[in-house]
Design brief:
The complex is a heterotrimer of chains A (about 280), B (about 270) and C (about 260).
Chain A: H1 2-6, E1 16-23, E2 32-39, E3 44-48, H2 55-62, E4 70-75, E5 78-79, H3 85-93, E6 95-98, H4 110-115, H5 124-128, H6 134-147, H7 162-175, E7 180-184, H8 192-209, E8 213-216, H9 220-226, E9 229-234, E10 237-242, H10 249-256, H11 261-265, H12 267-278
Parallel strand pairs in A: 3-8, 3-9, 6-7, 7-8
Antiparallel strand pairs in A: 1-2, 1-4, 4-5, 9-10
Chain B: H1 2-6, H2 16-39, H3 44-61, H4 69-101, H5 109-124, H6 127-138, H7 142-166, H8 170-178, H9 183-214, H10 225-234, H11 238-266
Helix pairs in contact in B: 3-11, 4-5, 4-7, 4-9, 4-11, 5-7, 6-7, 7-9, 8-9, 9-11, 10-11
Chain C: H1 18-38, H2 43-47, H3 49-60, H4 68-99, H5 107-122, H6 125-136, H7 140-164, H8 168-176, H9 181-215, H10 223-232, H11 236-264
The chains are: A alpha/beta (about 280), B mainly alpha (about 270), C mainly alpha (about 260).
Chain lengths: ~280, ~270, ~260
């Protein structure tokens, strides 16, 4: 654990605070509407909701892969929404992200993919010639051993199976020494057994490294089993927020209820139903 | 309704509209060909005499004269060097141009247009015309040849490489951006690995083309085997011409074989 | 975990064998050095280049379109050369392509077909043009003959590849229906290769127009000849005008050819 604690993210009181977040594309209806969410230290939070509810946009607003339209996102006291250039990149280092389709660079080796998590820290020269500091190498081997892929270090990333590739993605995110992990449908491309393994891994990493983890997920059963808290989203709003045990059939119906397209466009009907339901 | 059953049933391969379009296309082609044949400035007896003239020329080439093989070999080596060095130079220049001319990497619209203008002007001017220009500037010699081939290669390699950059998978780029890497590092880690195979394939392909092109540079005074060829033709030394032509075939075929082998090896 | 020893990591080299790796590196550096040092650069003449380039630039600006007659005639001739060479080249390429396809032609015919294609492709059109200029004299005829050879090499090669990929089931169906050799060809083979052949022809027309600008440089007619004359007479403003027009015409023809081919497919 020496490597992990050297950057000491765990000693900080990690906290993510989103307030009044709005994201709209052009003049269309906003994808996120005045959304508020707080994630405390060490918790595994899952976000569920139908496709198009805005889950992925929410996650990408946090590390600014998507520019929020308005609102504030604070990570351990730093407001992320107004950072630019170098400051933004420094902020992104603190946020690890895991993707649905792993987003590895296929033609690079597993080790290079893992070390790319340190790109925000090392100089251009070191990055170009793959001369990373020995601490980074140690840390890489440490995490790769932790998730069981150390023996693949010099294999090309596209030679691995889906579950192994996602582990590479997880290690890449951990290499950043993140203060929070964002996982965008991390198991949607995996078979049921592997996806449970990945969920269990995220869960135990959160405990070991005292990391808050925010997971977008389609599989409600997995969300219930592996996370402490479930957030239900619908049309850019949070309509459910509670412990997995409190997510009953009625709440599920609200989150996933189909609303005709006309109602979705005419702001009224669909949202009114939700307001009644969530109050 | 009963009429429809009694109507004669016809079958046509095309609808009337399609037939009209096809007819007009044929008509245009025929009209253009007729115009070209009637207007072109050809002395028709020369055409009918062409087979004789060619046979006569071939007859004079026999047997090929191998007495100056050493000069031919040296000249071929020079041709090969022009092609190879110019390809290397062209590749180096085309990298930043491709970067500018790809929509997803270009820093801004002005750079995009600069990149595109470079590519278009490089591609639209043939190697031989570039060679004419450089011979006029730097005098006859290999430098004009190298520059001509380099200038033409930049457009070819830059265009194909730029297209490869535009077609990359966006996802790894997003992931590397998310780690807090700077623009330069994102290019290095997420874009370069994805375009490396295209890069090698295009560079090797262009080397093959450049080898062919460098055989004719000498005809406008820009070095290589073409110089010997032009000299032999001017002296009506047809047997020598035959040897040079044979040597060119051998080099071109060898170049094609080598580039094919390299491409299979690298990718 | 506390017993972990220091583990180094280096990127596995692109070429595993170190001798080969460093050999290639040293070899290519040595090659470039040797190549540059043995090439006969005429340095004193090259040093005059910059002032000359400036003088040429001054001579070339502004481009002169005054002798528009010569300009138009040159282009018209280039178009005629391209059209006729394409028509004749494409027609000849069909039988050659059939000869050169492994699945239709007997072995000796196949080899002969391949030899024709290789011969036609090995020579740069400019070399072919010089020979034709010597044989039939200066002018568009030499240009047309040159580009016929050029078209033949390219179109026949690609068409032969297409013929080798045809669906053999259709041929068998025709044979089963009792059709003869040529009927089979017309009903089972032609429909399969026609779209490709038309696409290739249009592409080749574009290629020939480009090439016709070049073969003229060695006397085979068209705009290339006009350009060469302007260059020889140091009429740089006229040469520049011609070059600009060539670029314009090539871009137009490329756009047109791309448009028609997209429509067809």
């Amino acid at each position: 654990m020496a490597a992990a604690s050297s950057s000491s993210p765990g000693e900080l009181r990690s906290m993510l605070k989103i307030s009044n977040l709005v994201k709209s594309y052009g003049s269309d209806k906003p994808v996120l509407r005045n959304l508020d969410l707080t994630v405390p230290e060490r918790s595994v939070v899952s976000i569920i909701g139908a496709s198009g509810a805005g889950k992925s946009t929410l996650l990408r607003c946090i590390n600014r892969l998507v520019e929020p339209t308005s609102g504030d996102i604070e990570l351990n006291g730093v407001n992320l929404t107004r950072l630019q250039g170098r400051e933004l990149r420094t902020a992104r280092r603190r946020i690890g992200m895991i993707f649905q389709s792993f987003n590895l660079v296929d033609r690079l080796t597993v080790m290079e993919n893992v070390l790319s998590g340190r790109l925000g820290y090392v100089s251009f020269f070191r990055a170009a010639f793959r001369r990373f500091p020995q601490e980074d190498i140690d840390r890489a081997f440490h995490f790769m051993e932790r998730v069981g892929i150390a023996h693949y270090a010099n294999k090309r990333a596209d030679e691995l199976s889906g579950g192994e590739r996602q582990r590479v993605g997880v290690v890449r995110a951990l290499m950043q020494g993140p203060e929070i992990l964002l996982a965008d449908e991390p198991t949607a491309s995996l078979d049921p057994k592997t996806s449970e393994q990945i969920m269990a891994l995220l869960r135990s990493l959160s405990e070991e490294l005292a990391l808050p983890v925010l997971i977008n997920i389609h599989n409600v059963a997995e969300a219930k089993e592996y996370t402490d808290r479930i957030v239900g989203m619908r049309f850019g709003r949070i309509i459910f927020d509670g412990a997995p045990s409190t997510l009953d059939q009625a709440a599920m119906d609200q989150i996933y209820a189909g609303v005709p397209a006309e109602d979705r466009l005419a702001d009224g009907a669909g949202v009114q139903v939700l307001k009644v339901a969530s109050s | 309704m009963s009429q429809s059953a009694t109507l004669p049933r016809e079958w046509h391969r095309y609808t009337p509209r399609q037939r009209l379009v096809r007819f007009l296309s044929y008509l245009t082609v025929v009209a253009v060909v007729v115009w070209a044949v009637s207007e072109v400035d050809i002395v028709w007896p020369w055409l009918f005499d062409a087979p004789n003239a060619m046979a006569d020329l071939l007859g004079r080439m026999m047997p090929p004269d191998f007495s100056r093989t050493d000069a031919i070999v040296m000249s071929l080596l020079e041709t090969l060097n022009i092609a190879t060095i110019a390809t290397m130079g062209g590749v180096l220049i085309s990298l930043p141009v491709a970067y500018l001319a790809a929509q997803n990497t270009t820093p801004n619209r002005v750079c995009l247009w600069i990149g595109r203008v470079i590519l278009v002007s490089s591609r639209s001017v043939n190697t031989l015309i570039w060679a004419l220009l450089f011979v006029a500037i730097f005098g006859p010699g290999v430098l004009a040849g190298i520059l001509a081939i380099m200038f033409r290669s930049v457009g070819f390699i830059g265009k194909l490489l730029g297209e490869a950059i535009e077609e990359i998978d966006r996802k790894p780029v997003e992931a590397i951006e998310a780690t807090g890497a700077s623009r330069a590092k994102v290019i290095l880690y997420a874009i370069v690995p994805q375009v490396v195979p295209t890069f090698f394939a295009v560079a090797i392909l262009r080397w093959d083309i450049n080898l062919r092109e460098s055989t004719v540079l000498g005809l406008v005074g820009a070095g290589g085997i073409g110089l010997l060829l032009q000299g032999a033709i001017d002296l009506f030394a047809w047997q020598m011409v035959a040897t040079i032509l044979l040597a060119i075939i051998v080099v071109v075929l060898a170049g094609e074989a080598l580039s094919g082998w390299l491409r299979r090896k690298v990718i | 975990m506390t017993t972990e020893t220091v583990r180094r990591w280096r990127k596995p080299p692109f070429i595993r064998n170190p001798v080969l790796r460093y050999g290639l590196l040293v070899g290519s550096i040595a090659y470039v050095w040797w190549g540059l040092s043995t090439l006969p650069f005429d340095w004193p003449r090259i040093q005059e280049g910059l002032p000359r380039a400036i003088r040429m630039m001054q001579g070339a600006f502004p481009p002169s379109f005054e002798r528009s007659n010569l300009l138009i005639n040159g282009f018209v001739e280039s178009i005629q050369i391209a059209v006729l060479a394409t028509v004749v080249g494409v027609l000849i390429s069909i039988p050659v392509a059939f000869m050169a396809s492994r699945n239709l032609a007997p072995r000796p015919v196949y080899l002969a077909g391949r030899a024709i294609i290789i011969l036609a492709r090995s020579f740069h059109p400019v070399i072919v043009a010089i020979l034709f200029v010597k044989a039939v004299g200066f002018g568009p005829l030499a240009g047309i003959l040159t580009l016929v050879v050029y078209s033949l090499g390219f179109v026949a090669k690609l068409l032969a590849e297409r013929i080798e990929e045809i669906d053999w089931g259709q041929v068998e169906a025709m044979k089963a229906a009792g059709a003869g050799y040529f009927t089979t060809l017309i009903y089972a083979v032609f429909p399969q290769i026609m779209p490709r052949q038309i696409g290739l022809s249009i592409y080749q027309l574009d290629s020939n127009l480009r090439a016709s600008a070049v073969v003229g440089v060695v006397g085979a007619g068209g705009i290339g000849a006009t350009l060469m004359n302007a260059f020889k007479r140091y009429d740089y403003d006229f040469a520049f005008a011609i070059t600009l027009l060539i670029i314009g015409v090539i871009l137009l023809s490329e756009a047109f050819s791309g448009y028609v081919r997209r429509k067809l497919s």
